[in-house]
User: Which sequence fits this backbone?
């Protein structure tokens, strides 16, 4: 997976808050991705080919499911419900 653009809340997943005008590599083996956000505060949820779930970006309302409300600047594997 590659990302670029606004990175105000770490939504690109490259470990920074620096906006990018060229693609940066973030993760391999992505099967599905869902992105959301508002006013430049984006977040992402991704499922890899091995069915693990990863999340990063804005987390002010706990939407990443990692148990806190801190922005996540790099993809973090999160626990997913069975099935």
Assistant:
């Amino acid at each position: 997976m590659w990302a670029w653009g606004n990175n105000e809340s770490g939504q690109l997943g490259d470990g920074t808050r620096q906006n990018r005008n060229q693609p940066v590599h973030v993760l391999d083996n992505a099967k599905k991705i869902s992105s959301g956000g508002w006013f430049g505060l984006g977040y992402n949820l991704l499922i890899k080919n091995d069915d693990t779930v990863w999340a990063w970006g804005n987390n002010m309302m706990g939407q990443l499911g990692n148990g806190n409300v801190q922005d996540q600047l790099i993809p973090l594997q999160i626990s997913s419900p069975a099935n």
